[in-house]
Structures are given as structure tokens and as C-alpha cells.
């Protein structure tokens, strides 16, 4: 087809070069059409980029529709505050302070309730504190005469701004009052610089703080009442999700290692994604810390009290990360070049798979414990199972000794030809033994997770699982709640008296 | 002494209880003195807390004096902009827009030059874009009559605020334009709500944007001219520092493992701190990413061009993290309960220590390469050394086979008493063999780091080391720099002609 077209295209300019070959001359396109082509290419590229961007945005929205809801909420809060002030424009009445309400909504409205409350508190406290300080400085400056006024104000701005900026480097301040320090600097310099007379300043401060409070209240109400997203609940869900991912990765990695060509092919179409779940655990430290910080400020919601021990979730997270590091090492065993011979792998596969499946059962049970906020009745049994599987694995490793060839290295030359296939090198066994010892290591790290989750269950006073009435009663009696014990004692005494 | 005092304290009230024992009654203090005690305790606690806080702040300042300098710079910039507007107060002339300059300085001034430039760009672009859009919406709304005006403005605020809020969830936008999106929403709603007539809006927008530009320029000048902290340089230094820490941890861990009681005691007073250096590598991902983002915006500074390949530092960081995960596993070997018998440890210690010291030499050389921006002449040799040490270690593991007792498990009961001390279990060897295999794993991960650093050296066109003239010349000729090659060819031709 292409050849035919070429033949029918009519006239063609050719130039014969020095070495005998000839070259066809393509007619040169005009500058206008070249610019047109370039523009077309540019536009196509741009459209493609925008399309990709929108596609990505769509995916994000579909993946977590609450993000879309948050955006609609933010838009709503802003529209409400805007329209209130639009009907009463900036230049009449409110003295230009209406913009502080709009500004507050824009800056304070955050994804989670805790974050919104934290920013609101920061904004109100920072503004108030800075306002009073600036007022004091203003008063002192106005007393000291016109010559010293700029000097005093300049020095105070310099000192306080420097100090507040420095405070933002201190980790404990950074974590909780970063925004407050910023607002403090902002308000202090604005008020100090304003040049209003002191009596006028009071009215101004009153207006400004009241608009800010209106803005923050609106934000807090909207975040709390319309499809609220609680930082605490998010932290809770993140912890459960990470546990499930950890369990999935652990099981998946070991299965992948012992998978003899295609066993998993049908059941897992995307094994990689499941295997790499532990990476989420490795990367969620920052998120967990900020969530725990915000959750402290949230009122009781859902199944959580105001004083729910959110800090304990950080400990759980850290023990999970410690486990994830070992899974990372496990994962590198899969890709390793040195692999044990098939028959050793087969020999070890059952017991290794048992350890990994028992371990991931423990993790899944812990995830369930946290998810349901109920003490598990089977966790002790599952840990026991895991330990016995680990014991089996250790015995299996011990039994591998019998296959090793000890004499080989002592008499390397003479015995070379007589080597039988039933004895093997230590080096050959090594990859699978390392995998096994990593599994043992992981199981001991899982016991740390169990401990931290149990601490959470005790501090947060989880109830025992409902499906086991007898155990629940036992647990209730054993639970060390002084008030409960006192109640019990009083009941007993009352019974004795009767 | 206490007894004597009790005797001399005179009168004492005692009460005799039902069971015959007597109890001394302490004279009750008055409510005033109790409140006084409580207040004193409160004050002491508060003073102690403040003292601790100040102490911590002092430590932070001493540890990194540049933080103090940054605070002084911030204070200075703010004082300058404040005093300029203090002499020309807010309520005359500048139409209340002076506060935008103050606000800009407070919000935009950041620790590093790159961060300040990034925020400045975000602020200027966000404000301009939103201003124009709001102006357009205002114009359309004013055309459509008083009835529809609030409707159109409300709808536009809702739509654009929602969309801009959503864009902040998209990772690529979040990383670079998060602040810009915030400023966009802020400016758009402020202008849309303002209710000014369109002709007045232009003058307003002009003033506002010019004050913002004045503020940003002041910030950029102050950050760049007075003791500048460059994000690029920070990223560079962080990478070098992390490499040194990685090398230190690796060497320290292995030394600690083979340390026979107190060898290190004198030389390292704080071995723990050195050992845990790798944790810094694990936790620096977020910092690296934001630094690389800011560094892209910085002009050429020090030894870095404008187009220095900062993204490559992220690859180096990720390969270092992969190595740090293995060191984490190595570190858990130290604390493990299962330890190999001393004589096996001794047997393996030399070759393991050699691998670890050679490996950390490679890392240190890489750190030097990055620090000096010069291609190392000895890196190939060091990698070679490391590989040969790894080979030795593998041979040593192989030779351990000779010590293992294979028959023991086949005849466990009968041979129990005849067991000789020269043969050992696989389980006993295991801990040290695992350590060794982790070392082998680490050395292969180090080779990944070598690769990423070499990529950096090629892309950033590092020069060869100066101390080795002959090699440097060789490297210069081999380097694929077309312009240089052309120069060389021209020189050769000129020589031929002569």
C-alpha cells in the first residue's frame, strides 16, 4: 500500500551525491505551516497532560470519596461566610474586618475535625495573646514620646518575631503550636505597626477577635456536623489497615518464595501490590504522629471517649514498623540470586508456610481486636499456635544438619568424585535457613505487637468478646478497675449483712 | 537526729484506735497556708517546666547556630517592613494594603532560600490568578443584575473553592503548589466578596499585588544575602551525613557483636548513639523530598549549578534506606537471645570485621565523593576489596560445614554421651551465619549505592580527583563532553598543521 502511494505521488526531486547514491528532496514546508504544526503538537501535548491530570484527580476521588465530600464542605463553609459578608459589604459597617472571617475559614478548615480544632485554637490563642502584648507595647511606646516610639516598636517586633520564629524549631512546639506561633507573629506586627490610638485599638481588637471566633465556630460546626472525618477514627482505621497489610505481605512473601511456578498465578493477579503492603507501614510514621496529636483534641465520637489513649497507637505503629523492617529483609530473600535447591525448599516449605500463616493469623486477630474494640478470646491460643509452629521450624532446621556434608572440606581433593547427591553444602542450605530465621525473628516481633495491643486493650478498657459469655464475665471480674472492685466489695458486704 | 527533734517538739495529740494501736494527730494547717503551699508547689512546677523548655531551646540553638541566625533574619525582615509602614501608617495613603506586605513577610519567610522562593512564587501566582478570575466573575455578575449577583458569586466561590481544595489532595500539586492553592482560594473569595465596583477593583488589585511583590522581594533578598541557607546545600550535606552515619552504624554493629566484653568501653563512651545512626537514614525520606523540591528553584550557588541533578539525591537516599533496613536486621542480631558459642564467634570475627570495615570504607569514600564533588580514583579498588572480603566470608561459611555434626540427629539417643566438643549443631552456628549473610546482603546493597552515586557523578559532571594528576588527565580525556572533545580535536589538528 505504502509503495503504491509513493508511485502515484507524481513528481519527485532527487539529488545524486558524490558516492553515487541518490537522495530524494522532500519539499520544504513554509514557516506558517511549521509554526502551525508546532502549535498543534504543543496543544496536543497540553491536552494530553491536562487529561492525565484530570484522570488522576478522578481516580483519587473514586478511591476516597470522603476527599470529595471534604472539598464540598470547604466550598460550602466559604460560600456561607462569603455571602453573609457580601450582603453587608466590606467597606461599610464592619470596618474591613469581615475579611478576617473569610480568611479564617480558608486557613482553618481542615480535613479532620481534630486538625480544624487544633488550627482554630492556635488561631484564637495566637491572635489574643499577640493582640494583648502588642497593645501593651503600643501603650509603653506612646508614653515614651515620638522620638523613641519607632525604636521601641521596632525592637519589640524584632525580639518577639525572632523568639517566636525560634520556638517553631522546638519539636514539641512545632508539633502543636506551629500555626499559633505564625499567627502570633502576624498579629503582633500588624497591631504594633497599625499606628492607631490605643482607645481605637480596643474596638478594633474586639471586632477582629469576634470575626475570627465566628469563622472558627463555623468551620468547627461544618467539619463536625456534615459527614465528619475524625482524626482519631482515621488513626484507628490506619492502624487496622496497616496490620492487615502487614499480615498480607508476610503471608504473600513466604508463599511467593516457595511458589513452584504458577501456583499463585490464578488466585493473585497482582501479587506485587499485596507483597509491598508492608511499605505503607514503613512510611506512615509522620501521618500517625500528626493524627494522634489531632485526636487528643477531639470530643468523644463514635466508640471513642474523649480520653481514648491515642498515644498507645504510636507504640503499636512503632512495633509494626519494627516487624515491617524484617519483612523487608524477607522480601529481599525472594529476589536474591542465591536460591536453595528445589528439594530443600520443598522439604522446608510446609513448616515455613505454617509459621507464616500462623503469624499472619495473629496479626489479623490483632487487627480484629482493634477494629471491634473487643478483647480477643482466641489471641492466646493463636500465639501459642504460632510459637509451636516456630518450634517445629527450629526442629526442622536442626534436622537439616543431617543432610550436611562435614568431611568434604577436610578432604576436598580425594573425595570430590565420590560425592553423593544426598549430602549438601551449608552454603546451599543457607538461603532457606536465613528465610526461616527471619520468620522466627518476625514471630518474636509480632509478640511485641501483641503486647502493645494488649496494653491498649487494658488502658482503653476494651470489653471481652461477646460470643463467649463465660469468658466475658471472668474478664470483668479480673479487670482491675478500682471503682468496680469497690462496688463488688460493697455488694459482697451487703450480701453478708443480709 | 530526727528522733531527737521529735522528742523536743513538745506536745503531741494521739488517738487510740479500736485495735489498740495509737495514731498521732498532725496539727491541721489553716486554709490560707494550704493554698499558699499549693501555689508554691504550682509555681515551682511551672518554673521547672519553663526552665526545662528554655534549656532545650538553648541546646537546639547551640547544636545548630544557623537556626538562631534564621530567627534573627526573620526578625530583621519583619522589622524593616514594619518600620517602613509605621512611618506611613496603615490608615493614610496606602489604603490599608500595607498589611499585605507585613503579612507576606510573616508567611513567606522560610528557613531555606528554595522554600522562600517557592512560597513567594506560590503567593504571587496564586494571588494574580485568583484576582483575574474573581475580576471576571465580578464583571459577569454585575452584568446579570442585582437579583442574580449573589447567586453567581456564591456559586463561583463554591465551585472554585471546592476544586482548589480538591487539587491539594493530588500529590504532585500538594508537593509544589499547596500554598498557592490556599492563597488562590483566599484571594478569590476576598475579591469576589469585596463588593467594590469593577473600576475600583483594578486600583485595589494593583496596590495589593505590588505590596505582595515588595514583601516577597524583601524576603528573597534577606534569605539570599545574609548567611543564606540553601536547600540544595542542605540536601547535599544531609546525604553526606547520612552516609557517614550508615558507615558508622555498620562498623559499630559488627564490632559490638564480636566485642568480647569491654574492648570498646574506653574508645566509645556512647556506642549506642553511633550504632543507631542508621535510624536517621530511615527517617529522612520526607526531608529529602521537600529539600529536592525546593532546591530545583534555587539559582546557582557555591559549587552547584542551577540545573544540578537534585532528583538523583532522592535515588541515592532510597538506596541508602534499603541498606539501612538491612542494618536494622543486623542490629537485631546483637540483641538476639540466641548467640553462637564464643569459639565460633572468634573464628568468624576477623573475616566479618574485614567485610564490615571494607564496606564502611566504600560508603565513606562515596560520602567523600559527594562531599568534594570529585570522582573518586579509589572507589573501584575499594569495591574490589569489599567483594574479595565477601568472597573470603563465603569461603569461611563453607568451611564451617566441616564442624557440623551430621549423624547426631539420625542417632540422637545412643550417641548423646559420646558427643565430642569439636562437632557442633547447625542451630549453634546459625546466629553468626545469619549475621554473615546479612553482611553479604548489605555489601550488595552498597553496590547499588555506588551505582546511584556514579550516576550522579556522571550527570553532574564531577571532575576527577586532583591529587592524582595522571589519572585526572586520563579521566578528562575519557569523559564524554562533546565540546571538550571538539576542543581536543581542534588542538590536534592545529598541531598537525604546524
Automatic annotation (TrEMBL), chains A, B:
Belongs to the aromatic acid exporter (TC 2.A.85) family. Signal peptide: none annotated. Residues 473-498 are annotated as: Disordered. This is Aluminum activated malate transporter family protein. The keyword Membrane applies. PANTHER family: ALUMINUM-ACTIVATED MALATE TRANSPORTER 10. InterPro entries: ALMT. GO terms for cellular component: membrane. Keywords: Ion channel, Ion transport, Membrane, Transmembrane, Transmembrane helix, Transport. GO terms for biological process: malate transport; monoatomic ion transmembrane transport. It comes from Populus tomentosa (Chinese white poplar).
